[in-house]
Amino acid sequence: TTTAHHLFTFLLSLPFTCGSYSAFFVIIQSELICSKLPAMLSTASSVADAKANLTKITWAHAVNDAEFLTRVLASDVQFIEADISLGYLKDDVNKEREIPIMAHPPATESDISLETFLQRILQFNREANDPSKVKGVKLDFKSIGAFERSIDIIRASYDMTAFDTWINADILPGPVDNTATVPVDPTRFFTAARRLGKATLSIGWTTRWGPDFSEGLYTEAQVDAMIAAIRANGIDKVGNAITFPVRGGIVANSVTNMIRLFCALKDTNNVTFTIWSSADDAVNVEKLREFIFTTGLDRTYVDVPDDLHKKLHLDENAFSNTCKKTLQARCFD
Q1: Which of 91, 170, 178, 236 is the most exposed place for a label (fewest CB within 10 A)?
Q2: Which is a Gene Ontology cellular component entry for this protein (predicted)?
């Protein structure tokens, strides 16, 4: 503590500009904290614990039918991910009313509508007597039409101010020459999203990857296109939280460009990353760990298959023996 005090006193005597002080103090603070403190988490409550280590948050995927939703609500899962498409309820045998339903293409039928899905989760969350039981919701839209048709339903059927609500879509073409998947139109997406207030925007790139891939990354041009789309549509000005869903095998090769992405938006939006991976994806585990450590356990959600999650060893002390700059400090490199 004495050493730190003398160091800061010395720094104050230097003829730096205000901006230089800011940059220097972030870096020095990073090094001081890093040298003195292990990467321990708060255990005061599950909420504090989750904020300190987002990698601990658990997920349920493709919760697209009523029975599955019932089981997930009764479980300890913390985040519910589900797909929304335009289609028909199964009891609409004559297919007379096309509405937003819970279904992943190519499915066009479901036994639960988006409206009922949200109403059930809202009721559960309001009646939960333990804050740790409350579920977050990630709504994955498969087309711009499905999203635009869903805005009024979300506003009427859910409380986005009280409970975590993510709006997910791939809005730009992405790595490895992916041409098979058409991204959701970013301008129309952001126009509709602004009607949802401060919902978290989970916005990513379409990707192509698999077991036989080892080369590929989120390129500088793709990162620049994302930054440009966010700024062109005023999302930096309204300040929505943004999480970037990034594919594990690809982002492991993209640390530098992800730092650029964070640094470009950190002053206007709360930026996090959500790592995802398909079951058979090729992933360099050590490089992916390096990405997670660089961005930080408090800025990185990990939504990957269980076997990959175990290989990453993301426990409380996973990175305590290694000392590196904070993500904030890296913006001044």
Answers
A1: 91
A2: extracellular space
